[in-house]
Amino acid sequence: MNVAVIGSGTMGNGIAHVFAQHGFSVALIDINQPALDRALATITKNLDRQVAKATLSEEDKAATLGRLTTHTSIEAGVAGVALVVEAATENVDLKLQIFRDLDQYAPADAILASNTSSISITKIAAVTKRPQQVIGMHFMNPVPVMKLVEVIRGYATSDAVTVKVMDLSRQLGKTPTEVNDYPGFVANRILMPMINEAIISLFEGVAGVEEIDTVMKLGMAHPMGPLQLADFIGLDVCLAILRVLHDGLGNPKYAPCPLLVNMVMAGRLGAKSGEGFYQYTAGSKDLVVAERFRK
Average pLDDT of the chain? Predict the structure, then answer.
């Protein structure tokens, strides 16, 4: 089965990796070749890690890489595919344009899936002539490790497409969970208010960064505290999802904390920018609270 993945960032290269490792031929599509080259380097590095842990053979690594091709054209990349998974930046206008293009260029019977973490599948499907074939496949980061795929049914998504995507997710070694199309779906409707409340607790001086995360790690058995997790996700992504929740549900409890808004405006986006609630140094795994939040 041929699959196309749109976007070669963290989520896109992880999705491409997993499909290719499980025997699918994968066309990875992005707007520029350097981004695709970086994605292939990341996939290779992650496969090497699996080989080092003896969870993958050198032969399987080579076969996985052999199933990957790269394209800078959507039209060329989606020719002959049965499934497209869009994993571009979490931007509504960008995603809608991508799905217009996919509707034009992908085979008429192809399933069009989005890895969106919060944007309405119904809204995305409405710009196509095949809304019954549009669905959400929300993978978790890091994709090769995390088992969940949140499968989101849009208003018009057919039963047959839903069953097919659930089955494909299982073929990837994942556990699919079917949810309906409401703002934030399940994962982020529950996660983002928790992260936002942690930021509010910091903003109001209830406790410091390390203390808040320690309470949640040791008291609630979370593997990562909510502030560290926010840094890992990207504070800009957290803010965008909270705004989708706030706009879509109209409940003030989803209003983003002013501290989060200011940090995003200041470019303190978390791990990817080098600083968020913690500061990040290349080559170091030490968890160091950002200077601004030190006591």
Answer: 96
Distance CA 92, CA 89 (A): 9
| 116 vs 188: CA distance, rounded Å | 11
Catalytically active residues are 117, 138, 150, 188
pLDDT tens-digit readout, 152-189: 999 999 999 999 999 999 999 999 999 999 999 999 99
Summarize pLDDT for 260-271 with one digit per residue, the tens.
Answer: 999 999 999 999
Burial of 208 (0-12, 13-18, 19+ CB in 10 A): middle
Secondary structure, 3-state, 10-65: HHHHHHHHHHHHCCCEEEEECCCHHHHHHHHHHHHHHHHHHHHCCCCCHHHHHHHH
Mean per-residue pLDDT, 137-150:
96
Question: What is the C-alpha to C-alpha distance for residues 124 and 78, in angstroms, rounded to an integer?
Answer: 18
Residues of the chain with pLDDT > 70: what percent?
A: 100
Amino acid found at 205: G
The enclosing H or E element of 235 equals helix 235-249
pLDDT for position 284: 86
Contacts of 42 (CB under 8 A, 6+ apart): 13
Q: Angle at Cα 126 formed by Cα 189 and Cα 143, nearest 5°?
A: 45
Rounded (10°) CA dihedral 139, 141, 144, 150: -20
Distance CA 90, CA 289 (A): 27
Cα 205 to Cα 225: distance, rounded to the nearest angstrom: 17
Spatial contact of 179 and 185, defined as CB atoms under 8 Å apart:
yes
